[in-house]
Amino acid sequence: MEAKDKRAHAEEVLSEVLKRMGVQARLEVKELAATEATADRPATPASISVALFPEGDTPGLTVGKRSPVADALQFLANKIVNRGPDKKWINLGVGAHPEPRQPKPPPQPAPAAPPAQAAAPAPQRPQKPAKKAGKAADQKGPEQPDRERPPEIDESKLEVPENPALMRLGRALAEKAAQFGRFYAVLPTSPVERVNLRNGAVGVNDVSVKFDGEGRHRRAVFVPSNPKPMPKKSVMPDYDDEEDLDEE
Fold first, then answer.
1. Is residue 223 within 8 Å of residue 209, measured between CB atoms?
2. What SS3 class is residue 199?
3. What is the pTM of this model?
4. What is the pLDDT along the chain (248 residues), one digit of tens a residue?
5. Is residue 176 a contact partner of residue 206, using CB atoms and an 8 Å limit?
6. Phi, psi of 19 (to 5 degrees)
7. Do residues 138 and 78 lie in contact, with contact meaning Cβ atoms separated by under 8 Å?
8. Which CATH class is domain 3-94?
9. Strand order, beta sheet including 219-224
10. How far is Cα 115 from Cα 225, in angstroms, rounded to an integer?
11. What are residue 221's DSSP bridge partners?
């Protein structure tokens, strides 16, 4: 893939991924030329900037904020488009073009340590006689009880205000899980969002919703009753590119 085609290729890949996700969004893609180093900024290589404008309320894509969904879209675009030695970093922002990626400055060498000087031997202190074990045990204070963890919230009984967008998403994922026999997970989510996703799946046959993980990594998982193996061929379009030569 020639460098001059990178911008069109990036727009094609992202449009296809968003289409398969069922996300309606407008893309604005532009190339950023390389810049030379100045007194206050290092040199930057040529790159591709993408501004993604979601249409409507799309969970996981919030204007002006980074999210796992935006990071995953940027990662996939770079993996697919930047195959081979000729690369242009793709930087994606939601609602606006992101700030250009700045290269990391080279590590500075550590300052040389001053030559060690011979230290005078420290005077030895007289050793105190060892205390008896029984007396030492009597001087110990009472043992501190272990702190108990707060009880976990039973999300199956949690009543939350309805969020129509999340409930529609929960029903759509449940229907896909039942139809294709695939597992779908949504993260990171709050307890209120997880309950709305589960409530949206109520009434869909051959699928159940469970919550797993802890803290901010807790997620809602749509589990089909009859899981099916993944097909041998990827569902992504087959691009005529050479093998990925990334050293990552």
1. yes
2. helix
3. 0.42
4. 444 588 888 899 899 988 888 888 889 998 888 887 777 777 788 888 998 898 877 787 888 888 888 888 899 888 888 887 788 889 998 988 887 666 555 566 777 766 666 556 666 776 766 665 555 445 555 565 556 655 566 776 778 888 998 899 989 999 999 999 999 888 777 888 889 999 999 999 999 999 888 887 888 999 999 998 877 655 555 555 544 545 44
5. no
6. -65, -45
7. no
8. alpha beta
9. 184-186, 219-224, 207-212
10. 71
11. 185, 210
d(CA 77, CA 75) in angstroms, rounded, equals 6
Beta strands in 97-198 (DSSP E): 184-186
Contact 69, 60 (CB under 8 A): yes
Domain boundaries, the chain: 3-94, 156-224
Alpha helices per DSSP H over 52-190: 68-81, 133-139, 164-180
Question: Which is nearest to 76 in space by CA: 8, 12, 1?
Answer: 12
Give the Cβ contact number of residue 41 at 10 Å. 11
Instruction: Provide the angle, in degrees to the nearest 10, between the axes of the packed helices 68-81 and 6-21.
Output: 130
User: Which single residue is written with the structure tokens 């005529």?
Assistant: 240
Task: Count other C-beta atoms under 10 Å from residue 21's C-beta.
Answer: 14
Nearest-angstrom CA–CA distance, 154 and 151:
9
Does domain 156-224 sit in CATH 3.30.1370.50? yes
